[in-house]
Amino acid sequence: MSTGIAAVVGDDGVARCPWGTGDPVNLAYHDTEWGLRVSGEAAHLERLTLEAFQSGLSWLTILNKRDNFRAAFAGFDADTVAAFDAGDVERLMADAGIVRNRRKVDAAIANARATVALRDGGGLEAFIWSFRPEPSPAPRTTADVPTTSPESLALSKALKKIGFAHVGPATMYALMEAIGLVDDHLAGCHRRGCAS
């Protein structure tokens, strides 16, 4: 039997996924962005990069640093980040406005390079969306929301095969939720059904 938490009605009378209540930054992200499709290479590279940096941290930490990440990584322009050199890595490792983790910084640069190389095969956006699963029933509680799926495992393996790093199955599942490949807004949440 499920022991998770169902959608929560906030002080504003609106039902949301439990993580989207409380902190105003989480609430705004939940209500205006999470689960909505993004468009373009830079938007997909940004989400992939931020999900990789989030690994082991709270998502709120990443959201609070997102503007700094955008500045540090040139708006997630793949060509610019792909050209980063050792000096850029040192600059990033000295930037207190982002998460300073050498493996994640190196992965972000490797992923930008892999994104550029992927353009000949249709591009990052089309590649990620080719792993979109069939829609599933609305999860009733947080206990019904998986952390991985067969599709996220397949996406992870496929990305690693073409040079991406720090793209494990759980990280890729979080990416799939964030950009609307799967709709994990809970039953009763006012955003359920927003994924395209």
From TrEMBL:
GO terms for biological process: base-excision repair. Signal peptide: none annotated. It holds the Pfam family Adenine_glyco. Zn(2+) binds at C17, H30, H185, C189. GO terms for molecular function: DNA-3-methyladenine glycosylase activity; metal ion binding. The keyword Metal-binding applies. Keywords: Metal-binding, Zinc. This is DNA-3-methyladenine glycosylase I. It comes from Nocardioides zhouii.
